[in-house]
Amino acid sequence: MSHSSPYQQSFTTIESAESATAATSIETAESTTAARDVSPPAAVSAARDVSPPPAAARDVSPPAAASAARDVSPPPAAARDVSPPSAAHDVSPPAAVSAPPPAVVPAAARDAPPPAVAMAAEMEVDDVDVHEVPECIASMIDRGSVESHRLFLARRTAMEMLRDRGYSVPEAEIARTLPEFRAWWAEKPGIERLAFTTTLVSDPSKKVQLVFCPPEPVKIATIREIYLQTKEENLSRLVLILQSKILSRAREAIKEIFKFKVDIFQATDLLVNITKHVLKPKHEVLSADQKAKLLKEYNVEDSQLPRMLETDAVARYYGFDKGTVVKVIYDGELTGKRVAYRCVF
């Protein structure tokens, strides 16, 4: 029996410890390498992309492969069945649409006339109904020309204006109806036939003439022609009714050629008599004595009275001159009856 020395026993113990330490290091290194090759993030990425495992996973030893298979679950069936989209393979041609069966048209619809024929028949019925309009309504329908109607209204209002100014106007001229005027006008149509001359009732020496101008714009030549026609009449006033505009130079020529006042109206201004409106108050011209009495009573001058412009529609209708004092009488449900005075300026 041999006995080893204490030094030999210590040496043997050191070698055994080194061998155990080397074996443990080798096993730890192999385990770390296997774990690094099959890491959880790589397995999750493989499950998400639904692709075969990488080559590193195939080379793993059986124990490591089994562990990787346990950690990575197989993809769901929906992910396995979904194939890459392909417009050429996935879009199938549309199925042929079968034509609907022909509609059955009722016999009444087949026998009905075309829409154009039905509309024409309705229009014929409407035309027949127009002739059956009651006489009271049919008399209000104007089937004549617009020009004759406009001239009729303008001339009638002008006649009423002359009568309200105090001139002598026959009642037949104002009472003439539209059919009578058209019959009279159709005999010899001419703008000169519409002229009318009359005198003042209170002073026959004062004469006025009503003249219609042609539909063309009024120029200086037109004014001179009218002057030549009226200069022998010894007129004190002239009323011109225009059917068109008047040039500015022609308006100035009127002031230079005529020595008396000339009133200018558009035919469209005389289509309606404004003095017949229910809201228009009554106007009365004061005589010289009445004017003097009024100014003395209130101890004022005529320039201190309320004013009415000479271009006012009512002043132009009655032909008020500057300095004329007018008595205005209001009589209404809201205003009651009251009197006011205006002086024309």
TrEMBL record:
InterPro entries: Arch_Rpo5/euc_Rpb5 (IPR014381), RNA_pol_Rpb5_N (IPR005571), RNA_pol_Rpb5_N_sf (IPR036710), RNA_pol_subH/Rpb5_C (IPR000783), RPB5-like_sf (IPR035913). One of its GO terms (molecular function) is DNA binding. Residues 147-227 form the RNA polymerase Rpb5 N-terminal domain. One of its GO terms (cellular component) is nuclear DNA-directed RNA polymerase complex. Residues 272-344 form the RNA polymerase subunit H/Rpb5 C-terminal domain. Its main location: nucleus. It holds the Pfam family RNA_pol_Rpb5_C. GO terms for biological process: transcription by RNA polymerase II; transcription elongation by RNA polymerase I; tRNA transcription by RNA polymerase III. Residues 12-98 have a biased composition (Low complexity). The keyword Nucleus applies. Residues 1-109 are annotated as: Disordered. Transmembrane segments: none annotated. Keywords: Nucleus. It is found in: Nucleus. Residues 1-11 have a biased composition (Polar residues). Belongs to the archaeal Rpo5/eukaryotic RPB5 RNA polymerase subunit family. This is RNA polymerase subunit H/Rpb5 C-terminal domain-containing protein. The lineage of its organism: Eukaryota, Viridiplantae, Streptophyta, Embryophyta, Tracheophyta.
